[in-house]
Amino acid sequence: MPSLMIDLIISLDGYAAAEGWPGLWGVESPEYLAWLDEQQEEHTVLMGATTYRLMSGFAEQVGDDPGFAQLAAMPKVVFSSTLDDPPGWANTVVVRDDPVDWVRSQKESVERPMRTLGSLSVGRALLVAGLVDRYRLVVFPFITGATGQERVFDGLPDVALELVESRTFDKGMQLLDYRPTLLDGPPAGGIVTRPDPQPGS
Question: N or C: which end of the chain has fewer CB within 10 A?
């Protein structure tokens, strides 16, 4: 059965983007970029229409950039009811079906791993459906409280995360790779919290 990974980059306060900030929050990290190149093993890329329009536009602008050349060569699936089919980006197909139904059928019939690219709503639906095998974050060392856009964790159910891998890159980004498990409620015994201090204490 193929694995499905949700793959996201976020600010420390959980935003996927921030108004006026450049890509990757303007961080140039040779170590992180080298690690990204290592992550291009064969898989199918899953995305929504908004991410497709953004990334295919970038691909046109950067031409022969090696990273985008690798991405262009990979099979890509766009979940959309509005995009033309076939789309303009090489090796891309448009799927009109619900992402949950499509991924569930793929898990039963193919072996190729799948990985999301951005596309918060697609990833959220797949996580809620219990189809996600790995939940991987790279946390950038910024709080974008004033300019942050696209809150990553809003609308998610309670999820337990088993840490599989972690790493700190040269510019302070944190890799956090988890195995998620959906929860029906708090863990057995509840959660121990620190009581609020009493006045005068």
Answer: C
